[in-house]
Amino acid sequence: MQVMTMKNMLKTGFATFLLMALVLLYSNAMANFHRVIAIDGSITEIIYALGKEQSLVGRDVTSLYPKDAEKLPSVGYMRSLSAEGILSLKPTLVLATSDAKPQSVLKRLKDAGVHIQIVPNTYSIDGVKQKILTVARALNDESAGEKLATEFQQKADKAIALAKERVSQHGERKALFLLNARGNQLLVAGTQTRADEVLRLAAIQNPAAKDMQGYKPLTAEGAIQYNPNYIIALQTQMSEQHLESLLEQPALKMTSAAKEKHFMVLAGDDLSFGPRLPEVIRKLSDKVYGQIETNRTED
After folding, report:
1. Signal peptide location in the record (predicted)?
2. Strands, sheet with 215-217, edge to edge from the N-terminal-most edge strand
3. pLDDT band with cut points at 50, 70 and 90 for residue 246
């Protein structure tokens, strides 16, 4: 009888242990499961790079990369969010940068029980690394975040080193980054803009940076004074054909860039400051400095 009791105790103990193990596994699985809405193209890109895209149930309109992200339901523009649109997707987690607005919508989401994680959005190499680590932590996969951040840093170091090498070989080149406002009024990027920072990382001088912060109207006198070797714009703002036609404007016509027809249009998400930033640095460097190398090879 005592033996049977011991057997029963062992069986009961094992069953209890097994049940606790299953509960623990379930709890861990639930902790790692989220219905995520990403609000900022860079956050969406990071989630895909981490291999966590299966957790996404929605995104904002700036989330253009990778292409599959556009298949997700959109909650609109990050600076004019609607609580109803977000709540309809039943998220458990909203990952957003500090650009997400209005605050009243974020408060309403919190009141509805949705966890809101605001991700720092500093436009720099270190800023992107911190974004990667923050998003990975929110998705309970810090090891994947550390791996991606390390790979990102290595690629960035190589792209920046190549750009600096080209400067030492050919001298520093100048470029203006333009936006097209209403009535074909051109705005030029100064300091404290993503455009200025990405030009700096690509070792390209932004001559407007010494005179202004943010985006300011470009005058003909200013364009002649700056005399850029290249004009750069965003695809969401203008096509290559449109930009080429703008080179005939008095504000640009007398510049070296206009005379040599040196211009480029970046993809709309190239300034998102996500994991592909090293590729953008390389693309700018290849275009602005690679043109010199091509010309010298042809000579």
Report:
1. none
2. 215-217, 186-189, 175-180, 230-234, 263-266
3. confident
pLDDT of residue 72: 97
**pTM, entire model:** 0.84
Paired tokens of 3: 């033996």
Give the largest Cα separation in the chain, rounded: 104
Beta-bridge mates of residue 36? 56, 93
Count of residues for the chain? 299
Cβ-count burial 63-101 (b if 16+ within 10 Å, e if not): bbbeeebeebeebeebeebebeebbebebebbbbbeebe
Cα–Cα dist 239/289, whole Å:
22
Tell me the two tokens of residue 137.
Answer: 């932590």
Q: How far is CA 298 from CA 163, 186, 292, 295, in A?
A: 21, 34, 10, 5
pLDDT digits (tens, 9 = 90+) for 8-18: 555 565 555 55
Task: Average the pLDDT over 118-127 and give the result.
Answer: 95
Domains, the chain, in order of start with CATH, read 36-150 (3.40.50.1980), 172-268 (3.40.50.1980)
End-to-end Cα separation, the chain, in angstroms: 101
7 vs 141: which has the higher pLDDT: 141
In the block, tokens 């639930």 appear at 30
